[in-house]
Design goal:
Layout: H1 18-25, H2 27-51, H3 56-82, H4 94-100, H5 107-135, H6 139-166, H7 169-189
Helix pairs in contact: 2-3, 3-6, 5-6, 5-7
The protein binds fe (ii) ion (2 copies).
Amino acid sequence: MVEQDLSLAPPLAPTPANWIEVVIEGFDEFLQDHASCEKKASGMAMSVASHYPDQPILLAAMVDLAIEELNHYREVIKLLLARNITPGADQKDPYINQLNKEIRRGSENFLLDRLLVAAIVERRGAERFDLIARNISEPALVEFYRAIAASESRHWTLFITLAHSHCPIDQIMPRLTQLTALEANIMLAQPLRAALH
Ligand SMILES: [Fe+2]
Ligand SMILES: [Fe+2]
């Protein structure tokens, strides 16, 4: 796979400035949500792997990703346990649910949309984990969130690269532009809470 130049990708709308305040204030609660998000990200990668057993590049990438996200989950669980916090039950994630509704059915569009929605979710994760790294005071957490942000940023690149190897090239940027605009509306409509989304 040829890694794609993403400098032409439309920028994400920035996260509202007060999101980080809510997260730092309710950081224990945020960690519970973060653990769920990593677990769901691993499950999402496994679900794509199960859906495309006949696509070796995609399959291999999704198995690697599932393991990497599961490693993130393990790291966040360690942080929770070290703080004597019980992991919470998985909550509904309206941001993800609304984005998933934008995935068009029909085999031709489905894979393109699924890859691009995943790319945007990874990119948003990278943006927000970086905000945490730059605003949290505990040095160990600064390091941790810096590493997580770098990893999610690589996943954004991965999904765009996978789209280029599996989908019509001329459809990628136009659809990414549409989905990025839809994501901005969905993101801005969410109430602020101590959660990733
Ligand atoms: Fe992750
Ligand atoms: Fe990720």
